[in-house]
Amino acid sequence: MANIKYTVPGMSDADSERVIALLQDRLHAANDLHLTLKHVHWNVVGPHFIAVHEMIDPQVEAVRGFADEIAERIATMGGSPKGTPGSIVENRTWEEYSLGRGTTQEHLGALDLVYQGVISSYRDGIKELGELDPVTEDMFIGQTDKLELFHWFIRAHLEDKGGNLSTEGATSEKDAAQSAG
């Protein structure tokens, strides 16, 4: 990352650069997630199509908002947010979403794993931000709260009356989709 020319008052350049790096990682994740959710919205089929189709759109809009908030925080801190598709692909640490057209349960199973990864990464960032920047930490906490709510919406479709998830033990989106389907 190039050295920043300025940052927010009361923060060292080194701390700011680390916070910007954490923010940039979440910007890539938020951009990837809202595109993935829209992909699911367009490709979901089956008896519960309309319920899942309509459940996904508010998630897309919220996550798009997260991306904007993150990018603006990067700029506020003196950084330059990178939101291009090439930047996402080049820097992501996760695999591209692997399902095309699929049933509601298959997509929800795959999304269970997607949300697990995104939420875990946010929580890792929260742990580090507590010492570096409580303002960004607060943003991450607020976004994690919403992501966990959306994850619950997904998991409610995958849970049996005993509280067991059909995706339990799945290690890939394809495994989760197959288990849920």
Spell out the blueprint of helices and strands.
Elements (H helix, E strand, L loop, with lengths): L12 H31 E2 L3 H28 L8 H7 L10 E2 H29 L1 H23 L16 H8 L1
Parallel strand pairs: 1-2
Helix pairs in contact: 1-2, 1-3, 1-4, 2-5, 4-5, 4-6
Short description:
The protein is built from 6 helices and 2 strands.
Describe the overall structure.
The protein is mostly helical and 181 residues long. It has one domain (13-180): Ferritin. It is 70% helix and 2% strand. The chain is built from six helices and two strands. It has helices at residues 13-43, 49-76, 85-91, 104-132, 134-156, 173-180; strands at 44-45, 102-103. It has a two-stranded parallel sheet. α1 runs antiparallel to α2, α4 packs antiparallel against α5 and α4 (104-132) packs across α6 (173-180). It is elongated. The model has no long low-confidence stretch (mean pLDDT 94). InterPro entries: DPS_DNA-bd, DPS_DNA-bd_CS, Ferritin-like, Ferritin-like_SF, Ferritin_DPS_dom. Keywords: DNA-binding. Residues 20-160 form the Ferritin/DPS domain.
Q: Could you name the key traits of this structure?
A:
mainly alpha, two-stranded parallel sheet, 2 strands, about 180 residues, oxidoreductase activity, acting on metal ions, Ferritin-like_SF, ferric iron binding
Distance from N terminus to C terminus (CA atoms, Å) equals 43 Å
What is the total tally of β strands? 2
The fraction of residues in strands falls at under 5%
Largest sheet: 2 strands, parallel
Number of domains: 1
Helix content: 55-70%
Q: What is the overall number of helices?
A: 6
CATH class: Mainly Alpha
What is the H/E order? HEHHEHHH
Globally, the shape reads elongated
> What CATH architecture would you give?
Up-down Bundle
The CATH superfamily name is Ferritin, core subunit, four-helix bundle
Query: Looking at CATH, which topology would you report?
Result: Ferritin
Q: How do the strands line up in the largest sheet?
A: 1-2
- What's the pLDDT, averaged over the residues? 94
- Unreliably modeled segments: none
**Radius of gyration over all CA atoms, rounded:** 17 Å
* Category by helix and strand content: mainly alpha
Protein name: Starvation-inducible DNA-binding protein
Organism: Nocardioides marinisabuli
InterPro entries: DPS_DNA-bd (IPR002177), DPS_DNA-bd_CS (IPR023188), Ferritin-like (IPR012347), Ferritin-like_SF (IPR009078), Ferritin_DPS_dom (IPR008331)
Family: Belongs to the Dps family.
